[in-house]
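Problem: given the chain below (118 residues), write out its structure.
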Amino acid sequence: MNYFPTLMNLKNIKTQLFSIIKIISSILIPSAIALELWNIQTITNNYQLPIANILNPALILAHIALSAHFIEAIIASIYAPSKNQPAIKYGVYTFFVGTVGLLELFDNDQEKELKGKD
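Solution.
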């Protein structure tokens, strides 16, 4: 038995993992936005969140995730034109999928370079 995965299996695992991360991230980021909007709405109307002690860690994670995704989106929209991608479209895409969007942006360029050398 061969216990070491081949290169083709690693590439297949990578695409499957990226797909799963994209789906999960595309659900969690809008959820984080909704949680943030709900928090802002309760603050502006002087309400108390119903289960504030439980939601505080979730709000902290939402702040961190949204900030990180926003920074990644800015980076992607800056570098996208140099990779022949539309800046706004790729920035929004990267905001919702996160680091996977950046990895795809730079991975496509590396694959083209490797194919050009062969």
